[in-house]
Automatic annotation (TrEMBL):
Organism classification: Eukaryota, Viridiplantae, Streptophyta, Embryophyta, Tracheophyta
Annotated Leucine-rich repeat-containing N-terminal plant-type domain residues: 33-71
Compartments (UniProt record): Cell membrane
Pfam family, one: LRR_1
Keyword list, A-Z: Cell membrane, Glycoprotein, Leucine-rich repeat, Membrane, Receptor, Repeat, Signal, Transmembrane, Transmembrane helix
Name of encoding gene: LOC111296315
Signal peptide: 1-21
Annotated protein name in UniProt: Leucine-rich repeat receptor-like protein kinase PXC2
Organism: Durio zibethinus (Durian)
UniProt-listed Gene3D superfamilies: Ribonuclease Inhibitor (3.80.10.10)
Topology with respect to the bilayer: Single-pass type I membrane protein
Amino acid sequence: MRAVTISFFGFLLVITATVLSFCDGNSNVLCIESERQALLQFKRHLIDRSNRLSSWVEGEDCCEWVGVFCNNFTGHVKELHLGLHSSSPDVELDDEWDGYFQSAEWDAYFRSKLGGKINPSLIELKHLSFLDLSNNDFGGRAIPEFIASLKSLTYLNLSSANFQRAIPHNLGNLSKLHYLDLGHNFFSEAKTLQWVSGLSSLQYLDLSDVDLSTATDWLPVTNKLPSLVQLHLSDCYLNNNDPSSISVNYTSLAVLNLSSNRLSSIPTWIFSLRSLVSIDLNSNAVEGVIPNGFQNISSLKFLDLSWNSFSSSSTLSWLSNLNQLQFLGLGCVGLKGNFSSAIGNLSSLTHLDVSLNGIDQEVSEIIESLSRCCLDRLESLNIASNKLSGHLPDQLGQFKNLAYLSLSGNSISGPIPFSIGKLSSLKFLYVAKNRLNATLPQSLGQLGNLEHLDVSNNMLEGNISEMFFSNLLRLTVFWASNNMLTFKPNPSWIPPFQWKSIGLGNWRLGPQFPQWLQFQRNISRLDISHAGISGVIPTWFWNLSTSFVYLNLSHNHLVGEISYLLKSRTVDLRSNLLTGPLPRPISNLEFLFLSKNLFSGSLSNILCNSSTKLEETLTILDIESNLLSGEIPDCWENYQILGVLNLGNNNLTGKIPRSLGYVGGIESLNLRNNNLFGEVPSILQHLANLLILDLSENQLTGSIPAWIGDKLLGLVVLNLRSNKFQAYIPDQICALNSLQFLDLGYNNISGAIPKCFSNLSAMATKRIDGILYVWVWEFNPNKEFYLHASLVMRGREDEYSTTLGLVIGIDLSVNSLTGDIPKELGNIKELRSLNLSGNLLTGQIPENIGNMEELESLDLSMNRLHGEIPSSFSNLNFLNHFNVSYNNLTGKIPLGTQLQSFDKLSYIGNLLCGPPITKNCSSDSETPDVRNGGSSEGRHRSKVNWLYVSMVAGFVMGFWGVVAPLFFIRSWRFAYYKKLDHIGDKLYVFWATIGIRIWKWYSML
C-alpha cells in the first residue's frame, strides 16, 4: 500500500512538473536547431540600426532571444513579437501639442525600426502561430508571398511597416487566422476583397488606408465572415455606392470603424446591428440631420461622429437611450445653441468631446448637467472652441476622476476657481484663449499629477511665487504666454521640475535673463518673448545641452553679438538690439526670424556656406530691417522648399540675383527699401507660387514686366512702389484674379489707366475667407501661419499680417498717367483704397466711383480733373481719408456725412463751394466777407480789390515758378517727393531714437 501511495505521488509530481514546464516561460527546453538557423538567416537579411536583435547570437538558445517565444513542452518557435510598440514616444493625443517632442526622441524611435528584406527562411517555423512585424520599415517592398505558407498562423500583424504594391491574395489561404492587420501601409488599389472570404475563422480585420474605392464587394464579403468581431476600414475611400439589396447582419460584429472615408450619409444598415458596442464614423462627408437610429443600438459604449457636416438643426434626444455610452465624440459637427439638456441621461459617460462647434451657453450649465449624470465617472471633457460664456463654477472640483479638461477657445471669464485644486487625477488642463482674469490660484499648484497646463491668451495677472511650482513635479508642458503675470524668483532658485515646453511670452521676467533656465535640460519649446529682458544673452544659455523645436526670444532688449545659433527648428530673435555679423546657423533649421535688429555685414556667410545645409530645410528667412550690406548672394538654386524670403529695409545693393528664379516653392519675396538696380530678371516668372512680391523703394528700371500677369497668376500683393519703372501699365496685369493690392506709385509710368482693371475679380467680389494664410509649417504656440506685408494706405505705411486679406487697394500715385479716369474702376466694388494723385489725369470724375461703397481712402489730388464732384460720393460712408485738392473742380460739394467731415485742405486748389469750405453756393455774387472784408463802403472795396489782385499775381508767379514745374518736369516731381519721404524717415528715426533713450533712462530709474 505504501509503495502504491509513493508511486501515485511520484506520478503526480511528474504530471505537475510537466504542467509547470509547459506553463513556465523560463523552462530549460532548448529551441529546435533548424528553427534557430532559420531565425539567424532571417536576421542576416534585416537592417537593425539600433541593434534590437543583439541577443540573437549563434549557439545561444533561441527561446531566450528578444521577441522569440517557444512552446515550453516541444521547443518549437510559436510566436515572433518584432513589432515596434512600447519603444515609440508617448505622443500626446491633443493636436494642440503635436510635435513638442525633442527630435532626439524621434530619431531614437525611427532608428529602432527594423528594415531590409523578410527572408523565406521563416517557412521552417512550421509551428509559428503569431507573427508581428508592425511599425517597422521595409522600404516599400511587397508582402512576401511565402507568408501564406505559414499555415499555423492565427495572428498576423503587418501594419504600419511600409509595405507597398498589391496585397497578395493567397493570404486568404490562412484559414486559421483569427487576427489580420494590414492597415496603414501603401498598397495599390484593391479591386476586390474576394480573397478575404477564405478566412472563415477571422475575428479581427484591419485594412485601413487600403484603397477600396472600386472594391464594391467589400460589404458582402466581410458580411459573410461568421466570426468577425472587429472590422476596421478607416481611410479606404469608401462611399455610399453599396448595393442596397444586400441583407447585412454581421452576426458577431461588435466594433465597426469606417472613419476618414467619403460617406455622404450614414449607411442605414448600421442601425440594424444591435450587437455593436463601438461605431467610429469620424472625418467623413456626412451631411444632413444626425439620424436618431442610433437609439436602437442600446448596447453602444463608443460613438464617434466628429468632423462631419451635420445640420445645425440636429437634435440629440436619441442620446437618452444610450445609458451604456462611455465615449461620445461630436467634435466639429455643427452643433449650435444649448447642449446641456442632451447629456443628462448618459450615466456611464467617461469621455465627451464636443469641441469646435457653436454651443452657446453658460459653461456652468454644462458642468451642472455633467455632475448630475456622470460626476464620478467622467475622465475626459473637451468643449474647446465653442461660444461658452460665464464663470467656471466651484462645482468643477467635484469631478475626482477627471484626467483631461479642455475649455480653450471660448469666452469664459472670471477667475479660475480655487476648487480646481481638488481634481487630484487631472493630467491635462487647457483653458487658453478665454477671458480668465485674477491670478493663478495657489490650489492649482497642488495638482501633483498635472503634466500639461495651458492658460495662455487670457487676462491673468499678479505675481507667481516659486512655491506655486513646488508640487508640480510631473509638469512637463507649461504654456502661459500672453497674460500679464510676473515671475521673478530668487536668482539662486533651482526648479524642482524638468519642463519640455515653456511659454512665458508677455510675462514680466526681466530685466535680468532668467537664471533658472540653466537647470532645464529637456526644453524643446521656449517662449520668453515680450518679457522685458535686457542685456547680453548669458553664455550658459548657448551651452544648453538641449535640442529645441521652437525658440522665441523676440521683442526684448537683448544686446551684443551672437556667433552661432542653438540647434532648433524655429529661432525667433526679432525686435531686439543684437549687433555684429549674422550668427552662424545650424543644420535642420526651418524658420529663422532676425528682423528689426542691428545685424550688419554680408549675407553670403549664412546662405552660401554648404556646411550648414540650410537649403535642405529652410522654409522662412526673415532678416528685414537690419544694417546688412553688399549684394544679395547668387546661390539660391538649391533652396527649393523656401516659402518666405524677407530681406527688406537693409542696405543691399546690386542686381536681383537670377538664381532666385529657381526657388520654385517661394510664396513671399520681399526685397523692399534697399539699393537694388537694373531690370527685374525675367527668370522670376518661374515663381508660380508667389502670393506676395514686394520690390518697392529701390532703383529698379525698365518697364513693368508683362510676364507678371501671364505667369504669376496667384499674386495677392504686387508692390513696385518708388522705383524708376517707365512706359505703360501692361494689360496683362488685369489677368491677376487673386490680386488684392496693387501699388505702382512713385515711378515714371505713363499712358492711360487700363480699363481692364475691372477684371481684377478678387477686388471686385466679396471675399469669404478674409484672412490670407500661407501654409508654411511654422511651429508656434497658436499655430498661426501667416504672411505679412508693409503697405501704404491713407498716406502712411503700416504692416499688415493677419488682416492682410482685408486690405484691398490700388495706388498709382505720382506717375505721369494721362487720359480720363476709366469709369470701369467703379466696378471694383470691394476696393478699400484708391490713390491716383500726382498724375496728369484729365476729364471728369466718373459718377460710378461713388458706387464703391467700401472705399475708406480716396485720393485724386494734383491732377487736371474738371467738372463737379459726383453726387454719388455722398454714398461713401466709410471714407476716412479723402483728397481732391489741386484740380480744376467746380460746383457744390455734395452733402454727405463723410464729405463734410474732412478738412478744407482736402478741397484746396479748386473752385468748389459749400461746406466744409467757406465759399457759399447760394448766389453768383461772393459774400461780403470774401469780397470786401465785411465792409459796405465802396472806397474800402476798391482797396481790398487791389489787395486781391496783388495776391493773385503773387500766387500765379509762385505757382508757375515752383509748383507748376512739379507737374510738368518728371525728375523735379520725383525728387521732391523722394525728399519728402527722406525727411519723413529722418524724423521717424530721430523721434524713435529719442523714445528709446527716454525708455532706457526710465527703465534705469
